[in-house]
Amino acid sequence: MDGFKRKTPEEILISISKLHRGSLKIYIGAVSGSGKTYHMLREGHNLKGQGIDVVICAVSTLQRPETVEQLGDLERVPSIHWMKDGVEQKDLNLDALIQRNPEVVLVDGLAHRNRSDAPFPTRLEDIKFLLSHDISVITTVNVYELEEAMEVAHKLTGIEVAHCVPSDTLELADEVRLIDATPEMILNRLEAGHLKGNQAAAVFKRGNLGVLRELALRLVAEDVNESLEEHREQMGFSGPSGAMERILVTTQYHWNGSIYVRRGQQIAKRLNGDLHVITLRKVNKPLTKEGAAFRRSMMKLVEKIGAKFEELPLRNRRCIPQMLVDYATSHKVTRIVMGHSRQTRWQTLVQGSVINGLLKRTKNIDLFLVADRASQEGERILPAHIQAVKEPYKYKRLSRQEVQAKIEKIKRGRFKVYIGAAPGVGKTYTMLREGNDLLKKGIDVKISLLETHGRKETIQQIGELEIVPRAEIPYQNVRLEEMGTEAIIRLRPEVVLVDELAHTNVPGSKHKKRFEDVLDILEAGISVIATVNVQHLESLNDAVEQITGIRVRETVPDSLLRAADEVQLIDVAPGALQLRMREGKIYAMAKVEQALRHFFKTGNLIALRELALREIADDVDERLESMERKSSLRGPWRRKEVIYVCVTESAQADRLIRRGFRIAHRLKAAWHVSFIARGADGELGPRLEALEKLTATLGGEFSYTEVASRKQIPQVFAALASGAGATQIIVWKDAMVRKLLPLARQMDVLIVADYAMWQTSGNKVK
């Protein structure tokens, strides 16, 4: 549904002009060989099958078998060939293409530079010319060929690029699709001799492949975020979408101002968010000499780290909370970073507290208070570089337990996961295609569990793959089917394909969840290729509910993704996914309209896509850091962290635990959950058990403490956190917080907002 807002005359003119302009789709990948041309050609065949006039021109297969096979019977318009430094180049034949006048042209190499006497100097300008003649174009580009990524790619990998395309190129596209490929996949293609061409050897170093892959994921995520914000604005939604973080640092021209900015920078990097810095300056009051010096220093720092800086006029102190809330709301801020209050209790009563004022006014914005260690330890909080941990005893003999652990790891099967933003993106299709490719290479592959949902394209991909019969389990006088785990282990194929990891098994099965069966199969030395959707990750459960208004009941622990040897994203633009839905390629036609009005709404799909891109980018970064590579995009954290999460009988306790896990995971921190409740309560047992189980699933330590009165909770929690050496505590925004803060000034404090679970448009609930 479109918004009801009336279009301006300019918007109407733009809409009319687009009717006479071709559409542009860009396939983007980390490197050559990631599969961009393959997918572009496959889409060309699909379009041709729908009766659309498609031609190819200047397409380079580099004799890759899979890509050559995809050429099929697509009509080729001859390109113009010329030589540069002994290498053959292909330019688009614009005259021939205009004369032929197809509906769609497929062309490789968006960053290509034309011969000197060509009508236009670049392929991008050629494409714009075709678009202006109502010819649509589908093309390809590598991430390091985009101007905005080129410098970062060069800095982190040493790769030099002769030609690039401008930063706004992705904005020109009607659709951008990422073709994700893991380093393992690229290196396997390289070893098989399927990657030919003049690409620099530096590109194919494993670490560089990881960096370029993460760069591509983050770049497309930023592009998706822009379209999400545009969509939300059109629909009249306010507040953050829940898909990305935006950090606001508020500080003064003081010696610790740069400290808060640095801390905000570190938080923004680890959470992959934007950073805004503001100062509030009294009107008509000149800065002191010292204040002016701090101002110059801060502005240099903000410019250096690429943050956005604003100086807001301040009339009186009591206006500060409302000014901060207004700024945060208008800029869709998700977290405000500031220092602890230094006021005494009496000063707070007389002058008012900025922090208390913020707690009263913020609804869906977290508040992060930077520890005041300087007053207690004389320490200034400055970022510290973490040195890579080296093996101290390289020649030390392994213990029996260490040897056994390494043997078990060697025996374990290899685990690969295809992940997507929503059902229907093509995870199962791609898994089956890989299974058939492995079968052709003589590897024993079987389908262990397949959910085709009646999709013809998916069923066709089964090919020669054998399906292992499912196990029958009696339940309530009927016999239901589940994955035949015992049969698989007995047959011992080299690889099995398993759909929908988050599935809950029928009561009476050996395991409650399908992913637990998969772990048994891996332990038996059988490799597994599986599928899952991003909304099924346990720690994202709340974010998905915030985005869609739907609580996903079936989840898998995040550790399952980290245990995988490879995690690959299957990316599809929301418009393309909705089209597949309307064509009946995802659900039965009877369910289509309901799905499009609920989970498959445009805003939901854009936000889930961004969530998936950022989640896999984080996974790539974690793997780069595990290789002790200093060039991971997020950079090092400042010190060893210990996270302490305080939960009570609140209904939101599980959300706070998930939040604690995600923060601890990003900071590589030890984390604890402290459940504090008033006395023994018979009804507390099941709740206590559920929270302890959730904490254990996510890898944290859980403890329970009884108090005689709720008034004791702040003191008890502060003492427990301090005794455990906590560097950061995470609490819910409630009445207890105000009493806790004065007791926790030596620790960072994250006060988690009570996020509205539904997006609002004006005063109406959507």
UniProtKB/TrEMBL annotation:
One of its GO terms (molecular function) is kinase activity. It comes from Paenibacillus planticolens. Pfam families: KdpD. Residues 21-224, 411-620 form the Signal transduction histidine kinase osmosensitive K+ channel sensor N-terminal domain. Keywords: Kinase, Transferase, Two-component regulatory system. This is Histidine kinase. Gene3D superfamilies: HUPs, P-loop containing nucleotide triphosphate hydrolases. The keyword NADP does not apply.
